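Cross-check.
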Amino acid sequence: MAGSKLTKKEKTDASKYLFLFFISLFYVMNANKIKKQVRCWVILFIIALALSGITAIPLKGELAYLMNQKEFFTEAMNGWIERVYTGITETDAAYPFIAYGTDWLAFAHVVIALLFIGVLKDPVKNKWIIDWAIMCCILILPVAFIFGPIRDIPMFHILLDCSFGIVGIIPLMIVKNKIRLLETISGNNPD
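Predicted model, tokenized:
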């Protein structure tokens, strides 16, 4: 067999296997690249979500800082910042335990951010987390527009709150589409 030549069928079969090998290698390399992109977007989302929650803890200090930056805001915004600062300062002086609610708000943001570790571990298996987060971002809008006016929140602040949902949905949609690509590559697409 040392000097024998391959038949035409054997050459064709070898070519097919070689082709399939390179296609498989391409898919694995492409899947790894997509997984890295998913990880980057999810880590960015985790950090943004945790930070947005943690900022609820030092509200009085943050508002005191904003009170000293009046030249950067409109008159309406300055009035709102002053009103919120007064409300938080007076409430904190008389009822400091009320701030415990914003501590729990911060904690909830961190806990929700931790949920996304599931997407980091297995994006395809845990894609439901992304779908859930997209729904949460969408629900920010009706919550802000319903409860904002009830709580006497000015429109610019309601729109600011809505921006968290609108901006938050962008990386989530990118991740959702990349997970779909991973499903297609792996042949595990239930859609």
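The mean pLDDT is 90. Helices lie at 8-54, 59-67, 75-94, 100-115, 117-121, 127-150, 155-186. Passed to J.P. for a second look.
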